[in-house]
Amino acid sequence: MATKHLFLLAGDGIGPEAMAEVKKLISAMNDKLGSGFVTEDGLVGGCAYDAHGAAISDADMAKAMAADAVLFGAVGGPKWDAVPYEARPEAGLLRLRKDMELFANLRPAICYPALAASSSLKQEVVEGLDILIVRELTGGVYFGEPKQIIDLGNGQKRGIDTQVYDTFEIERISGVAFELARTRKNHVTSMEKRNVMKSGVLWNEVVTQTHKARYADVKLDHMLADAGGMQLVRWPKQFDVIVTDNLFGDMLSDIAAMLTGSIGMLPSASLGAPDVKTKKRKALYEPVHGSAPDIAGKGIANPIAMIASFAMCLRYSFGMVEEADRVEAAIAAVLDQGLRTKDILSEGMTEVGTVQMGDAIIAKF
Amino acid sequence: MATKHLFLLAGDGIGPEAMAEVKKLISAMNDKLGSGFVTEDGLVGGCAYDAHGAAISDADMAKAMAADAVLFGAVGGPKWDAVPYEARPEAGLLRLRKDMELFANLRPAICYPALAASSSLKQEVVEGLDILIVRELTGGVYFGEPKQIIDLGNGQKRGIDTQVYDTFEIERISGVAFELARTRKNHVTSMEKRNVMKSGVLWNEVVTQTHKARYADVKLDHMLADAGGMQLVRWPKQFDVIVTDNLFGDMLSDIAAMLTGSIGMLPSASLGAPDVKTKKRKALYEPVHGSAPDIAGKGIANPIAMIASFAMCLRYSFGMVEEADRVEAAIAAVLDQGLRTKDILSEGMTEVGTVQMGDAIIAKF
Ligand SMILES: CC(C)[C@H](C(=O)O)[C@@H](O)C(=O)O
Ligand SMILES: CC(C)[C@H](C(=O)O)[C@@H](O)C(=O)O
Fold it and tell me: What is the pLDDT of residues B182-193, one digit of tens each?
């Protein structure tokens, strides 16, 4: 097979431990299947700041741009709390999203049958849950200008952020949501706050037009984002695909993740537009969980979200659908077998560490 | 007792039905206790638009400003979906908040023991839950300028909203949160997104300073708003008072409300600053639920949130602590007795309508 270039940004905290398990899986695939993956490591987040004073170096940024796909671990930790705003660990991730133009963030919230009982929600509310949050990732209040703190004198400051959305941004993200819905239950729910935000009014209008013009076969609902959050908690199975902006997507996807009872399990994909010539999309794959500095280095982190992110990479960047299915089946199999890292441990199950969990998944692959 | 002027804005949907039950309670208090309430009705929301083309008239706005307290029902419904943005039902509520300078929105999320089983969360997660969300209500992205849709030509538009917070706004809302925490479990959690928003950086800084300068006896934690949403779903009892901005407060308080399994039960208070001379605060009391147009006019709406909002009014606007306690005890008593409106009905309980529920609470008062 053709050589596939993966750029690995393990980052901080439990990022490197989780990434190590993916590396083993990649080696196994190269050895057994001749998958042709070539990997290179870079630095992002606090470790990058420690190394060269920025949350990602220009050299690593260039490698991310050139790779077929980027695998990202996690960034941040108390060590870097006092770092200047521009160099804070998150800035590395935000620069990757912006410079690679990864406008479409796909966050599946799936409740693995073996884990339904570990949710804080009633089992019948979450069992079998399978929703996909499509979050706009390069616009909105994350990147709009002005974004600044102004000194007004007299001990008064003013903090300003700007939410900006253009028609084309809403069009392309809703297009992604509608396309994905067609491969699922054919139902999209768009969420905004059109009752207080002008960007929400435009969002609603453009999603409605895009639907009418190109995706009338898909069922479309609109929900105010606050009501949407409530409905996620009340009865999440009413949703199939949710499409929303950057900030609401941040909140809602984390809540959806928590419903499943296992944030250590959930992957995400961030995709750019297909290149006009090569049709290839820039892409970054990342677990939903953070760097979890409190458990870093102890060998107890759950590597499943990182491994599942690699499965998304196989599916979306390389069209390796069969291999992706196999990775996901291997994860389900070790769970059925009763293996659990500490974060998802429950009575009668077998506690394992990061490495054992990774080994078990690779053995089932 | 001195005359107490209440201005009643029942609004749309189930607002008037719920307000009718409060009116009965007010009459009963006047008759039995000589409480001295004088009420006047006004229009807000869709019904105000139908009557005079604005979501609230200047005359009613003046009455709200002059009253000792405003009781507010709910606004909106599909009938007014196509109304111009400036006259949409919500604009009435937003004008009340802004013109009365009701910067502090208090949203208790209490799980009544009798209802713990009706939450979508596991009983042990929500039983005994008692948290208070203190939401900033007159600033942030709700009111910041520019707020507009610009036509860029070529079929492209740009939607813009602006999040703005000044030091004094953050100082006064966190002061309210700290004061209230002292009457509770003495613990405040402040939530923002300082990792992506400059207003979040300022928020974090000012809350920290306010704490240090005046409330060092209160326990203070900071949490990113997305993580806060997750923690609310995972283990809400870790919180006592949560203080956050207007938009995050909108999302988080609705999620907190849904945890309790009974959004039809939850009241809110919106308070202004104490007047320099009279020490009185402008105030508006409002159920957390909306206008629920689908069940309006059927006599099945739950009036408890509206009645509990009046209890908050007794407590915060008139210092009638004993009476407020009695109203809240009466609500708990009818629930213990097994009476339920449709929205909170469960097996073995007695279904009652809006009027019966109101009567039962008044009888227990
Ligand atoms: C780390 C942070 C900047 C990021 C975000 O807010 O987008 C994270 O919360 C996420 O959801 O990926
Ligand atoms: C009706 C709407 C404008 C309002 C808000 O967004 O503040 C509502 O959702 C609330 O929380 O009171």
Answer: 999 999 999 999
